[in-house]
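Feature request disguised as a bug report, sorry. It would help if multi-protein outputs had a clear separator. Right now it looks like this:
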Amino acid sequence: MPRVNTASGCSDVSGPRHRITGMTSHYDNSLNGACDCRTLDPDRLRAQLESGESLAGLAAEITRTRPHMFSATAVFISRQQLERMTSIIAAVESVVRVPGYRAAVMERAPEFARADPGPSSVFMGFDFHLGPQGPQLIEINTNAGGPLLNVVLARAQQVCCAEVGNVLCSPVDLEHIDAAFVDSFRRDWRLQRGNVPLSRIAIVDDDPPNQYLHPEFQLFQRLFASHGIDALVADAAALEWRDGGLWHAGRKIDLVYNRLVDFYLEAPAHAALRGAYAAGDVVLTPHPHAHALYADKRNLVLLSDPERLAALGVEPALCAGLKAGIPATVSVSREHGDELWSRRRQLFFKPARGYGSKAAYRGDKLTRRVWDEILAADDYVAQEIAPASERLVRLGDVSADLKFDIRAFVYDGSIQLLAARLYAGQTTNFRTPGGGFAPVFIAP
């Protein structure tokens, strides 16, 4: 089958006819709900994953240990949906620059995270559900996982039918996106270090080989090396802070690509990284200050409340735009516990420092025991449920509808890449047959 054009813009390839019934003017929704073709070319994916000697066998390892990392299908959105997501992201970025907002969110942040070290922070993740009311921003994450995995996945697609081939276009320039990723790291480096050369990057997590997204660490290591930057993958516990620098196995680190989910570096195993970051002896991206500004789930309470935003000095147009684009979110407290419990079926509950859907619950699945734990934690938010869209996926001889969200990987307010995550159940889980990461294409 013909391959998808990897440059930004519409594909001009054609393929065998495959009739899609029930077409409407919402072409993207019709494709998601009626076309169950597989668009992934496994051979091309293998070639993309194993683009260097150091990556030999990576595709087989993923298939064996992470069978649901990649979906075999693509997700389609309209240009209007893309424009709306772009507008919501821009509105959030504008609010983050308002002094009143910054003061409000920093008041509850740890002292350690209040100082701005300078870098914009790579790979901010803005996660959306798509629905009749338009895209809804359900959360923001720092160190969002999956950007490079989704690049190789998007490059490994093939056109499944003429209806898709006639309209398919990528929302980003896949041909040059690797360089754009590296440039964002170089820019973060310059924002803190000026024109001093960037020589070495450490990709840091806890016990990296046992992380689900460890294959991506290997891809980033290869990417940095291909652009002349020495790169290593390191366990945070193996770092040393000494002699005015951060070290790993005798090698001094210039910049840390932070994949830790200890967002404020509070664990004892992260003491060396915390000390070096606080002293300015290493550049860290993404960093704790960015998490406090964007990703603490309690920020959604402010961002979805136009009256509070107005009181903080945010322009009315921004307040209105965010109200339409972010589901209403409130803090969970014992004071309002009875009222929240009574309407729990319309709510989704998330911890303030949550990540990867950990300890997050749909209200209609809550038990009294879990509800008591949420109240005792005293850091949860409750968000109006914005239903996820669905994608028809072929599973053997049958087809099934899976839910999906859209993740926008953002740097300095600009979308670098869009990716979808297909799943069944309450939240994204990478355990669903037919699910996993999926590329996003634009259909008019």
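(second protein starts here, but nothing in the output says so)
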Amino acid sequence: MTTDCIIIGGGLIGMLTARELALAGLSVTVVERGRAGAEASWAGGGILSPLYPWRYGDAVSALAQWSQERYQALSEALAEESGVDPQWTRSGLLMLGAAQACEAATWAARFGAEIERLDAPATTQCEPALTAVQTDALWMPRVAQVRNPRLVKALRGSIVHAGVTLKEDTPVTDLLLDHGQIRGVRTAAGTISAPRVVIAGGAWSAALVAATGVEIAVEPVRGQMIVFDARPGLLRHVVMHEGRYLIPRRDGHVLAGSTLEYVGFDKSTTDTALAELRAVACRLVPELARFDIERQWSGLRPGSPAGVPFIGAIEAVDGLFVNAGHFRNGVVLAPASVRLLADLVLGRRPILDPAPYRPSTPRPGEGLAATAQFRTKTL
């Protein structure tokens, strides 16, 4: 089998990359080790903003801003192409506590974001479900969310509609290299030839890139979440407090997340996380104690130094690219990351300066001490 481009990885980044390249006229094949969209893309909360965005560098904010401005239109297009509504919803983001109000205001002024400081009465008025909370807050009214399982289902339908070949349950066993040129991939089901290959394997990407002798600092970071079978309207907005968040869905479900655990590729869930997430949720919104927890699950985020993804060419191998390492922000950064990667693959003028994302660019926060500090900061 021969195609113009192979995408290794059928998550949000991989499928969205396939869609972008297919719309540009390339024949594209997506090769996924499991089921499309079933890993971190499915498991996340779908908040379309980095959590505490001023804690990240400009490289992350630039991708987020570009994506946020286009997400509603993307969701509408995916719904039309697939018949599945990703449920883009402008919920707003309410961050309890205002200890970093000055840093937040400086960041907002630089990136044109709308942010407001609320006193305790105004916070309760904004979100009446917070009956037990008396604290100032930072309010970002324009932040939206999508429903991850619906987003990846819509995207799967979209790429099939666009003519992309999707091969699921097909692990890649080898990259086919010939004198510094990518020639395709070998899978358990046979060989696929292509002059371009994009590695978008999420937390599994580093091992694929390592086959070329190049290392990228992407590692799995487990996140556990729970969902309450609550009533519609109980919670109006996404609420953040000390690194934990509550997300209201249109049908009344309320997600509570998430943990940040460096445990390798272990996707198991724990009673400790369940108890902690439930306690935090019920402390913030006491009425949640009346509702059952419908499900607990986990996903493996592709962690990276300072949360800056690797987007661009693997310089040691002509025709090989990577789009991975989005850490906690894969959903919000996806449209810009994919467009930038497609620009580089197709030789178009890039939407953003690609330099901060190149695999060969040193990341701020690399090194053991700096990485430990960033892990603490992103809680």
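Even a blank line would do. Unrelated, but nice: Residues 312 and 358 are 5 Å apart (CA to CA).
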